[in-house]
Amino acid sequence: MDEKDTNRLEAFSDGVFAVAITLLVLDIKLPYADSSGKLLGNSELWQAIFEQWPMLLAFVTSFFTIGIMWLNHHRIFKHIKHSDTSLVFLNIILLMLIVFIPVPTALLVEYITHPELNTAALLYSGTFFAMALCFNLLWRYASYKGRLLGQQVDMDGVNKISRQYLFGPLVYIIALAIAWINTPASLIFNLLLAIFFALPDTPMKPGKKDQDPQLPMSESV
Amino acid sequence: MDEKDTNRLEAFSDGVFAVAITLLVLDIKLPYADSSGKLLGNSELWQAIFEQWPMLLAFVTSFFTIGIMWLNHHRIFKHIKHSDTSLVFLNIILLMLIVFIPVPTALLVEYITHPELNTAALLYSGTFFAMALCFNLLWRYASYKGRLLGQQVDMDGVNKISRQYLFGPLVYIIALAIAWINTPASLIFNLLLAIFFALPDTPMKPGKKDQDPQLPMSESV
Amino acid sequence: MDEKDTNRLEAFSDGVFAVAITLLVLDIKLPYADSSGKLLGNSELWQAIFEQWPMLLAFVTSFFTIGIMWLNHHRIFKHIKHSDTSLVFLNIILLMLIVFIPVPTALLVEYITHPELNTAALLYSGTFFAMALCFNLLWRYASYKGRLLGQQVDMDGVNKISRQYLFGPLVYIIALAIAWINTPASLIFNLLLAIFFALPDTPMKPGKKDQDPQLPMSESV
Amino acid sequence: MDEKDTNRLEAFSDGVFAVAITLLVLDIKLPYADSSGKLLGNSELWQAIFEQWPMLLAFVTSFFTIGIMWLNHHRIFKHIKHSDTSLVFLNIILLMLIVFIPVPTALLVEYITHPELNTAALLYSGTFFAMALCFNLLWRYASYKGRLLGQQVDMDGVNKISRQYLFGPLVYIIALAIAWINTPASLIFNLLLAIFFALPDTPMKPGKKDQDPQLPMSESV
């Protein structure tokens, strides 16, 4: 196997993903007192927590999305063996978009109950669309003529990613269109998208089990 | 030994555990001035710090719990050698619960001196119960028919974990029941639980020393 | 190849870079309500976001700068194989400057629209200048007579870095001079500097492709 | 060389150290407006920054101390090859004290200009003293009869650490005594202590260079 030159790049990226996904919790503040400062009773507190559903739904959606973006990063860097300045440059832009996610998330929480105002939802879905584009750019750059893939390329895996990445930006354009029309629907669509990409037996690993039923599914992630 | 495919998954998880456990400190604010803005004197400051015992006790309990959850994650991933999309999906849900811990912790701090209101304690213990369930699910999925364990399985270690994991959710159901009755008692029960799981010579590694007194106890963690 | 003694030093530094670059987002707060607490409409929100351009420009500049500083750290530690207490000491000072960046960044955001007041811009560019000096010191210390470089030194790579590092502090002195005269210009100059250092085919890796067109460009980062 | 079982324990600890050291910056807030909200002019801003010297001095001291504590952790885990539950337990307590440092740091900043009130300084130095004790406990536990050190022990290195660790808590008792008398003096003493432990050619690596002048100083950190 080729020696990998991207270990520290992956370690640094893992760190940024880990911090970004964890910072999402800083925006969750559950209420515990009414406007006069009196502690909420049991039923009032349950009700107050349930009223925070936009915050909790946005947290779950953004958390899953960053998690799946990490998975995608992991998937493509299994094939990328070498690094150059352009790759680091594209990776920094990608990480900047990941780190930015809490900002449109916080905005979306405020606007989710006002579906007639779609700016926040557009910004939220737009950030995800930009990320999908950036992943594409990074992958096309690294895989073009096998530029950074090393000597022993798993062509099957590489081609599979290249095919999938044709569709990634497309689904996020659909998310953008839904955001134009309806804010809560676009949030739920983004959540379903993240869950869909994370589910096993999606087009992400077609035929793997059929071909090699005995083998552990180590290549599938 | 099988090659491990889970290195980056573990590195990412370690990062999330590390950030989540450290962010707990952001909720500790010691007072230094009275309501008129005058700096507290020596004895007033000591008293003000001691009055923050709910905050400090909750910090210690949540810190130990996340630490022990990391240890559990480490223990089961010593046996898990391969990864697939379902495992990553379950791991993201588990990390989401870990990251969420500061939220019920902050709520508990407000309610600990009002034991007649048990909502916060239920949410706190409920989060831990959900984590225990999630650990079980992840472990059952990975170890079912040795699915993701690799060729050379340490069956003793695997069976030990499987047996222990029958009891994990049970003790957290007890914690939930205590939370229903008495908030401070449930916090202390959770702390004792974390310390118990961390102590050496618990059922976590029965007979290890007796079997191999010369060998370093490398398998015990 | 020499065994590396600097693995944990690099892992710790990667962690600090990753947290510092991610914390930059905590200073981005987009407005969503007017002074009377009323939610902003679509066009008002777009306008309010665009009015935050100093915040967003400063975020992008500091993010790229920390990213490129990480790249520099990575580049020089590819050659540094051993560690001693002085190296750790210099590395801590360097990390302290990295961690400090959000402070002058936040100050710059407030002063960018008041170009007649240059203190914030001087502090911002001054922090970068101190970082460039610190990188130089660390590199000169480690590479002096090959002190910490191990047995098999890539002399070409080492000499290239040493030549480049003559110019690093110089360009940041120019940035400092521009900060004296014009705040927004110095911010943009710093951003261009980061992009310039990140771009491929800069003097950072002269002649690499010409010498070895077949080889992957693994040494260039 | 023995295989190491402590890799993930070190990775997790590195993460906690990296986050804790970086979070220190969250307590640095430079002023930019006077009480009426007017932006400070050049000379006013410089003056306002210089007036924040307690905050900046405390930041530098705590940053160096956490950095040196990381170095100590790194040093002792170079010898510790195996892990058990007690070691993880002691390590969690140690990390809890590291994570706690921003709390007494923030308190100290408020009290540094009131040297007649020594509670904050005692809490600050007391935290460091507890850390020194905890390092001792962890090291004594791991090195007792070579319990967790593996087969090929570097006895010279082990004995050196054991000797040094007799003095560690002692110097922090002195720091505690100085804190009783004078707050700013104890802060500066703590800073000097960190710098002293970080300086090369301290008793930390006696005679290394004399014995093996050709060898890289890889063992010294």
From TrEMBL, chains A, B, C, D:
What transmembrane ranges does the database entry give? 12-33, 53-73, 85-109, 121-139, 170-199
Tell me which UniProt keywords the record has, alphabetically: Ion channel, Ion transport, Membrane, Potassium, Potassium channel, Potassium transport, Transmembrane, Transmembrane helix, Transport
GO MF annotations, alphabetized: potassium channel activity; proton channel activity
Keyword field contains Secreted: no
Q: What is its main location?
A: membrane
Membrane topology according to the record:
Multi-pass membrane protein
Cellular component, GO annotation = membrane
Spell out the family assignment given in the record's similarity comment: Belongs to the TMEM175 family.
**Name of protein:** DUF1211 domain-containing membrane protein
